[in-house]
Amino acid sequence: MTANQKGDRRERELVNRLDEAGFAVMRAPASGSATTRELPDVLAGDGGVFYAIEAKSSSGDPIYLTWEEVDALRFFADSFGAEALIAARFDREDWAFFAPHELHQTPKGNFRVKKEKAVEEGRRIADLLPDDEDERRNDPSEVANAVRQGVLSYADAGEMFDSTDDLRALLAALDAED
């Protein structure tokens, strides 16, 4: 089995695992080679949280990502309104998820995930699911993002919060981008 075939198999495995966890999920065809734009390997969401995921696997050696790969992932995720995640899978281990800033950056600016870090510190699929549905849907920064994208009106956004503190957080999040 070639490295590309193994990577494709691992991506399909990740898609199936996320689907089983309750996410709507899709694998980007050819992960970037079908278009001139860089695309994440996987998109997943549940109506409240959205993830743009770059999936990498290894038999045990550290996983490396170029600065360009991570930068393209961040750009896509920001444009899409998703959280950028790196999914690392080592043989005989479960998937581990990291935000780009959680990865070790090499002196040349690339990124690395070691197996030990993935096993000990990586988030698992269950960690990607929100604990409380109402809390997830009423995150002031996410609501502000929906307002900026025109998906939600200011009035509807204001009605989503009961507490003055949450309303202040929403206004602060809206002001942060203006």
Provide the descriptors you would attach to this structure in a database record.
178 residues; 2 domains; Trna Endonuclease, Chain: A, domain 1; five-stranded mixed sheet
Give the ordered list of helices and strands. Answer: HEEEEHEEEEHHHHHH
Q: Indicate the percent of residues in helices.
A: 40-55%
Proportion of residues in β-strands:
15-25%
The main sheet comes to: 5 strands, mixed
Q: Mind telling me the CATH class of the largest domain? A: Alpha Beta
Unreliable runs, pLDDT <50, ≥5 residues?
none
Structural domain count: 2
Structural class: alpha+beta
Rounded radius of gyration (Å):
18 Å
If classified by CATH, what would the architecture of the largest domain be? 3-Layer(aba) Sandwich
Mean pLDDT score: 83
State the end-to-end CA separation: 51 Å
| Annotation, overall tally of beta strands | 8
